[in-house]
Amino acid sequence: MKKIYTLSLILFSCFSSFAQVFYSEDFGTPTGTTLFPAYTTGTAPATFQNAAPITYTGSADVRKTTASSGYLGASGNGQAYIGVASAIGKFMQIDGLNTSAYNSADLVLSFGYLTGVTPATSQVILEQSTDGTNWTPIVYTPNAGTAWTLVTVSGGIEASATLSLRFTNPGGSAQIRIDDIVLSNGAIAPPLCTLLFGSPTTVCDAITAGVDTYTATIPFTGGGTATYTLGANAGTVGGDNPSTSATGNITITGANEGTALVFTATGGDCNLTVNVISPSCTPPPVGVALPYYNPFDYAVDTTLGTQSGWANVNTGDDILATSGNLSYAGYPEVGNSVSFAGVGIDTFLSTTEVTTGMVYYSFLMNVGSMAGVTEPNGGYFAGLASSTTTYGGTLWTKRVDDNTFNLGIEVRTATATNTTWTPDNYTTGTTYFVVVGYMLGANLSDDAVSLWVNPVVDAAEPTPTITDTHTATDLTLVNRFFFRQDTATETPSLQIDALRIGTTWADVTSATLGIKTNEIAGLNIYPNPVTNGTLFIDTKLNGDKNISIYNVLGKEVLNTTTASNAVNVSKLSAGVYIVKVIENGNSATRKLVIR
Question: Which of 567, 570, 560, 564 has its CA nearest to residue 531?
Answer without folding.
Answer: 570
